[in-house]
Amino acid sequence: MNRLFGSVRSRATLGATLVVAVALFVTGAAVLQALRSNLTAEAGTQAEGTARAVASELAARTPYDQLSGLGSKSGPVQVVDEDGNLVAASEDLQRISGTVTDRVEPRPSSPSPSASASPSQSAPAREDDEDEDDEDEDDDEDTETPRSQSTPEDEESEPSLAPGETGRQTTFSSGAATMDDDTADYRFAAVDVQTHDRGLLTVSAGAPLAAEHSAVRTALTVMLIGFPLLAALVAGMTWVVTGRALRPVAGIREEMAAITASEDLKRRVPEPGTHDEIARLARTTNETLAALETSVERQRRFVADASHELRSPIASLRTQLEVAAAHPELLDLDGAVEDTVRLQHLAADLLLLARLDAGERPVDARVDLAALAREEAAGRTGVTVDAESAEVAGSRGQLARVLGNLLDNGRRHARETVSVSVRREGDRAVLAVADDGEGVAEADRERIFERFVRLDAARSRDDGGAGLGLAIARDVAVRHGGTLTAGAAPSGGALFELRLPLA
């Protein structure tokens, strides 16, 4: 399991599938809710139309038994007086819930006043009826079902109705009813109407919710079947697409494994023809391999050159010691000392280069290049100094080594003089060493900074050195955040300029 979900392809497929599944679930729930609300509202509108039609008939003094909405083909309808008595109901209504009352059998209403009676005559009778039915009302209040979704604010906001007027407000509720042994869910609408001869009546009419239930069930079935199929399709497409996208990565990995096994740094990973992140990864990997190949080749060449340079003084010193052991009188003591000193200098140079290659950071100290130039020039013949004070941050010993190598190189190639100058240029200090020799050809001005490079192949090693001085000088300059370049001096010789940031 860990290996399965440890791959980018598997995680991408799982993530995409989960996102789509959550989106489908949320969308499906919203669609079902919207569908149910719309169909319920439509049923409520139908029920309200039926209730208002019956209320209009009651306002027109239509007798209960002649109301058109109470037929067997209509939905459940109830008419309740202001005392809570069921005075009329639909035919074949056997059971009902969710309306003002759950009674299905109409209760005979009290005798109505004659149409010719004046309001002053009918009012006392009404008051007497109310007094007689007070106890009945109290009993009925315990058994009546309150109208759903009605609030005190709705009742207070409904103005008193004039005779023959139907209320503007409609109260909706949901419930169930059984008609002719058929039980179904309904959406009920309740409307008040003030009649001329029967007082305030409440008409409750219902519209079936069968269409709403059927539509919701159909939509739910479609979602339960379609959503898993869509999620599976997304998972499959994601698996295929990510597999095709990651195919170059597999090629890069295989080639890198082969390079590691063969140690052949000349090989390169395949670069896809696209311009995406994987193509850039392949190009960066090849650039890294090229840099690694150059570094390893440089290291091999350095080891070979160092071995070659070390072999000469060691062989010479061994020969002199062997001769001295056989013939003490032939010992060339001065030559042995020179070879030993040369060997010591070479070992010191190699050790410094190794420390620089390891990334050793210079000591953070302030060094005055002018004072350093005067110290290094002291005791050297033919060296002139023209320097202004310029402080830089770094290692005094390493910077002295740079200046010493430049002066040694200048004296080796100068005809008569070597000049040293120190000046400021903006935020940089410039130390220049120039000689009046033959100079360095423009094509060789970068090559001379390579390790173990000597332009004059015919000169002796004793005169020319090992070819590490300028390489060490440039490496130290780079470690101090500066540069070392070679150019032409005004006198025609070589000019070396060391540029370092001012402290």
Helix content: 40-55%
Number of domains: 3
Which overall shape is indicated by the principal axes computed on the Cα atoms? Answer: rod-shaped
By DSSP, the count of extended strands is: 14
Along the chain, the helix and strand elements come as: HEEEHHHEEEEHHHEHEEHEEHHEE
Structural class: alpha+beta
Specify the CATH class of the largest domain: Alpha Beta
Number of helices: 11
Low-confidence stretches: 111-157, 457-462
Mind telling me the C-alpha Rg?
54 Å
- Give the name of the CATH architecture of the largest domain: 2-Layer Sandwich
**CATH topology description of the largest domain:** Beta-Lactamase
Residue share in β-strands: 15-25%
Describe this structure in words.
The protein has 503 residues and is an alpha+beta fold. It is 50% helix and 18% strand. It has helices spanning 8-59, 119-132, 134-143, 152-157, 210-262, 277-326, 333-357, 369-377, 396-413, 461-464, 469-479, and strands at residues 77-81, 86-89, 93-97, 165-166, 171-179, 182-194, 200-208, 365-368, 383-387, 391-394, 418-425, 428-435, 483-488, 494-501. It starts with 7 loop residues before the first helix and ends with a strand. Residues 111-157 and 457-462 have low confidence and may be disordered.
